[in-house]
Amino acid sequence: MLNDYKCNSCGLVREYWSKEETVKCRDCANTASKIMSGGNFSLPGIDTGFPTAADKWARRHRKANHHNLKELGIPC
Question: What is the value of pTM for the model shown?
Answer without folding.
Answer: 0.51
